[in-house]
Design goal:
Blueprint: H1 7-23, H2 42-50, H3 61-69, H4 82-90, H5 96-113, H6 138-158, H7 170-195, E1 200-202, E2 205-208, E3 211-215, E4 231-234, E5 249-250, E6 255-260, H8 276-284, E7 289-291, E8 296-302, H9 308-311, E9 318-322, E10 329-332, E11 335-338, E12 341-342, H10 345-354, H11 356-364, E13 375-378, E14 387-392, H12 403-409, H13 413-418, E15 419-425, H14 432-450, E16 462-467, H15 469-477, H16 484-492, H17 497-510, E17 519-525, H18 538-546, H19 551-561, H20 579-582, H21 588-594, E18 603-610, H22 627-630, E19 637-642, H23 651-670
Parallel strand pairs: 3-9, 7-13, 14-15, 14-16, 16-17, 17-18, 18-19
Antiparallel strand pairs: 1-2, 2-3, 4-6, 5-12, 6-8, 8-9, 10-11, 13-15
Helix pairs in contact: 3-5, 4-5, 5-6, 5-7, 6-7, 14-15, 16-21
Length: about 675
C-alpha cells in the first residue's frame, strides 16, 4: 500500500508543482483576488475623470490611457519632453482623435516647463514686472504653444467625429481649454514682440520666427480697429477683490484678453497732476467723453486646410480679433461654436486703475487730485445698434458706485444685446444746475460725433439711472424749466448784486431747458427730489462750508464778482452755490426743481431705501434721504428696500433694475422700434 499513494501532503505538493509548470506564476495570484475594489466619493470620481495637466499638474487619465495603449507609458514617455511627443506622433495603434487630444496635452506639458516671464499685478492692476521684453529663448516657447493650439484645433474640427458629436464629453472641454490657453499665450507673446520691434510685419502679415500670423479683417467694430493697445492682459491672469462681487463670462472658444489703451481722460482725472489749474488747462483741450480704455476682446487662431494633415502643417494661421459684445458665436470648419467672453475683466481692471475712490472726496472739497470737468465713459466701444443706459452717480461719488450694478446687468444676455452702458463722471462740488448743463452738452458732443444724422438706435430711447444727487440731475434731463428756475432764484435766494448779475447773464442759459428728446425712461434711486434734512443740520452746514467750487466755475464767478480775481472763499458771501447747499430741503433751487413738469412721454420709476424695516413708511429714511423726498406719486413703479443710502449696490435693487429694463425692452419691441 505504501507504493500506491503519496499521501495528502504529497498529492497536494504534486498538484501545485504541475499547476506552476502549466500556468506559470499567474496561478499564484489566484490564491488572492486579482482585481481589488475600493470605494471613492463622487468628488474623487469627478476629479479622477476630469483632472488634467492644468488642474492637477499631472496628465489626464485619457492621455495616460492613450500612452498605455501605444506602449509608451514607460521608457520614452517616463518623463515629459520632445522624445515622448515624437513617439506619440509616430504611433499608428491609436485613434487619430485620441492621438491629437493627447498630443495637445503633451505639448502643453512641455510648454509649461519652458521658462517664461512672470505676470504679476499690483492691487491697482498694474504690472509689477515688465513683460514687454522677450528673452533670447522665446522661439521654443512660442513653438510649443503654437503646437498646442494646432493639435487641439485638429482634434476639435478634423478628427473622426465632429465637435457637436462630442458635445457632452469632458475630453473635448479639456482640449478646448488647451486651445484657449495656447492662443492666449501666443497672442501675448506676439504682441510683446511687436511692441519691442521683434516682429517683421507687412500689410496684415506678422512674422515671428517660423510662424506668420495673418490678421483677419474685422467684421464688427473691433476695439483694435482704431486704437492700439499699450498692454495686452490675459483675463485669466487677473483676480479681483474688494467691492466687486463676481466675475461674469461666457464659456466658449477663444482667448479672453483685455486690451489696455491710453485713457484720454487721465489728464483730467489724475492725482499726480502738478496742480488743479494745469489739470484743467489740459482737460480743456480734450474731449469730454471716451470709450472704455480697457475693452475686453476674444482672439482666435484659425488653421487652414482641407484635411487634418494640411491643418497640422499650417504655419500661417489666421488671427481673428473679436469684440465679445458684438459676436456671440463663430463658424469654424462648418460648425457654429460659441465665442468665449469675459464681461468683467476689462471693466474691473479700469476701475482698479482709475483711482476714483480718492478722486471723489478730493473733488468735493476742491483738493488736488480731484477733477474739475465732467467726463462721460462708455463701457464698451460705441455701438450704433444698442440703446444707451446712462448711469449718474451721487454726491462725493464716482463710477465706482455702479461697479456691481453694471457688472450684474452685463451678465444678462438680453440686456447686454439691447443696451450699452455709459457712465457720467462729474465733480460733485459743482452746483447741480451746472452738472446737469455739462451732461447735456457732453451727450450732444457724443451724438454729433458718432451719429450726426440722428438715425442710429443709440440716439433714441435712452434710459437714465440716477442715484441720489445723480437722480436730481436725471430729473432735470426730462423736465421743462421755462423761466421758473431763474425767476424763483432771483425772488427767493439771498444773493449779492454780483450773484444776481451773474445769474441773469450766465445763469439763464444754464437754467432754461426742455426735456432731452433722446430719453424715454428714468430710474430714480434714493433721489432727494425735495431735498434732505441732513443738509440743513449743523454738520451739513459745516461740511457745506468746506466744499470748494471747481476752478472752471470760479473763473466765471471771478469775471463779474471779483474783478477777475479768483476767491476760494466763495461760500462766505451771499448764496452758497454748491451741491450740498442745493440738497437742503429749504434751498430755493431744489424747491423750484421739484415743481418742474416732467415730459409726459417719459416713464419713470423709483427705488427707495429705508434704514429700518419697522415704523410707518412715510416717516422712514435711508440715513440721508427721507421717504417723503424720494417718493413720486405718479411713478410707474416704486420699490422700497431695507437698506442704507447706497441702495443701488443692494441685490434687491439690482434685481428691480433688471425687471424694469426687461419691461422696457418688451415695450420697445411692441412699439416696433
Amino acid at each position: 500500500m505504501a507504493t500506491t499513494g503519496l499521501g495528502f501532503i504529497g498529492r497536494t505538493t504534486l498538484i501545485i508543482t504541475v499547476l506552476l509548470t502549466l500556468g506559470g506564476c499567474a496561478t499564484l495570484r489566484q490564491f488572492g483576488p486579482s482585481v481589488q475594489v475600493a470605494s471613492v466619493t463622487p468628488g474623487q470620481y469627478i476629479a479622477l475623470k476630469r483632472g488634467d495637466i492644468l488642474t492637477t499638474g499631472k496628465l489626464s487619465s485619457a492621455t495616460t490611457e492613450t500612452l498605455r495603449v501605444a506602449g509608451l507609458d514607460e521608457g520614452v514617455c517616463a518623463k515629459p519632453g520632445l522624445p515622448c511627443i515624437e513617439a506619440m506622433e509616430a504611433t499608428i495603434v491609436v485613434r487619430e482623435e485620441d492621438k491629437r487630444s493627447s498630443l495637445a496635452e503633451l505639448w502643453l506639458q512641455y510648454a509649461m516647463t519652458l521658462p517664461a516671464p512672470k505676470r504679476e499685478y499690483s492691487a491697482s492692476g498694474r504690472a509689477k514686472t515688465t513683460i514687454t521684453e522677450l528673452d533670447a529663448d522665446f522661439q521654443p516657447r512660442l513653438d510649443a504653444w503654437m503646437q498646442v493650439a494646432r493639435q487641439a484645433y485638429g482634434y476639435l474640427f478634423f478628427t473622426e467625429r465632429t465637435a457637436n458629436q462630442r458635445g457632452f464629453e469632458d475630453r473635448q472641454t479639456q482640449v478646448r481649454d488647451y486651445y484657449n490657453l495656447a492662443v492666449q499665450e501666443a497672442s501675448v507673446q506676439l504682441y510683446n514682440a511687436y511692441a519691442t520691434g521683434r516682429v517683421h510685419s507687412e500689410a496684415s502679415h506678422f512674422q515671428l520666427g517660423r510662424w506668420t500670423f495673418v490678421l483677419a479683417p474685422s467684421g464688427e467694430a473691433s476695439p483694435l480697429d482704431t486704437r492700439t493697445p499699450t498692454e495686452l492682459v490675459p483675463a485669466a491672469s487677473l483676480s479681483f477683490t474688494g467691492t466687486l462681487r463676481s466675475v461674469h463670462r461666457r464659456d466658449g472658444f477663444g482667448a479672453e484678453l483685455v486690451a489696455v489703451m491710453n485713457d484720454p481722460a487721465n489728464a483730467s482725472a489724475t492725482p499726480t497732476a502738478a496742480s488743479t489749474a494745469s489739470t484743467t488747462a489740459t482737460a480743456a483741450t480734450q474731449r469730454s467723453w471716451s470709450e472704455m480704455p480697457s475693452p475686453s476682446m476674444t482672439v482666435l487662431l484659425r488653421f487652414s486646410g482641407k484635411n487634418l494633415w494640411e491643418v497640422l502643417h499650417d504655419d500661417e494661421p489666421e488671427l481673428e480679433i473679436h469684440d465679445p459684445y458684438q459676436v456671440t458665436e463663430v463658424t469654424l470648419h462648418g460648425q457654429e461654436v460659441p465665442l468665449a467672453a469675459n464681461f468683467t475683466a476689462g471693466y474691473a481692471l479700469w476701475l482698479a486703475r482709475s483711482n476714483f475712490s480718492h478722486q471723489s472726496l478730493r473733488s468735493l472739497f476742491g483738493g488736488k487730485g480731484g477733477i474739475d470737468t465732467p467726463h462721460l465713459y462708455m463701457m464698451q466701444p460705441y455701438d450704433p445698434n444698442r440703446r444707451v443706459l446712462l448711469m449718474i452717480h451721487g454726491l462725493a461719488s464716482s463710477p465706482e458706485a455702479w461697479v456691481n450694478v453694471a457688472n450684474e446687468l452685463m451678465r444678462d444676455e438680453e440686456i447686454r444685446q439691447d443696451f450699452q452702458i455709459w457712465q457720467f463722471y462729474y465733480p460733485t462740488n459743482m452746483p447741480i444746475a451746472m452738472s446737469h448743463d455739462a451732461m447735456r452738452h457732453t451727450l450732444a458732443e457724443v451724438f454729433q460725433h458718432f451719429d450726426p444724422s440722428g438715425k442710429a438706435q443709440a440716439s433714441h430711447d435712452m434710459v437714465l439711472v440716477g442715484h441720489s444727487m445723480g437722480g436730481v440731475i436725471a430729473r432735470l434731463m426730462i423736465s421743462s424749466s421755462g423761466d421758473h428756475l431763474v425767476d424763483t432764484l432771483l425772488a427767493t435766494a439771498q444773493m449779492t448784486p454780483a450773484q444776481q448779475e451773474l445769474l441773469r447773464t450766465k445763469g439763464a442759459p444754464v437754467l432754461t431747458f426742455l426735456p432731452e428728446p433722446e430719453v424715454s425712461r428714468v430710474v430714480f434711486i434714493a433721489t432727494p427730489h425735495r431735498g434732505t434734512d441732513v443738509a440743513s443740520t449743523r454738520l451739513g452746514r459745516w461740511i457745506g462750508r468746506l466744499v470748494r467750487l471747481p476752478l472752471t466755475v470760479l473763473e466765471d464767478v471771478a469775471t463779474i464778482a471779483n474783478d477777475g480775481k479768483i476767491d476760494r472763499n466763495d461760500g462766505k458771501h451771499g448764496y452758497q452755490m454748491n451741491s450740498i447747499q442745493n440738497l437742503d430741503k429749504d434751498d430755493p433751487f431744489v424747491r423750484a426743481v421739484a415743481d418742474l413738469p416732467m415730459a409726459p412721454k417719459v416713464h419713470y420709476h423709483s427705488i427707495i431705501a429705508r434704514a429700518k424695516a419697522d415704523g410707518p413708511l412715510e416717516k422712514t429714511d435711508d440715513g440721508l434721504v427721507p421717504y417723503w423726498s424720494s417718493h413720486l406719486p405718479h411713478a410707474v413703479s416704486e420699490k422700497v428696500i431695507v437698506s442704507g443710502h447706497s441702495v443701488q449696490e443692494a441685490t434687491p435693487a439690482i434685481v428691480e433694475l433688471r425687471r424694469i429694463l426687461h419691461e422696457d425692452m418688451k415695450e420697445h419691441d411692441r412699439a416696433g422700434n
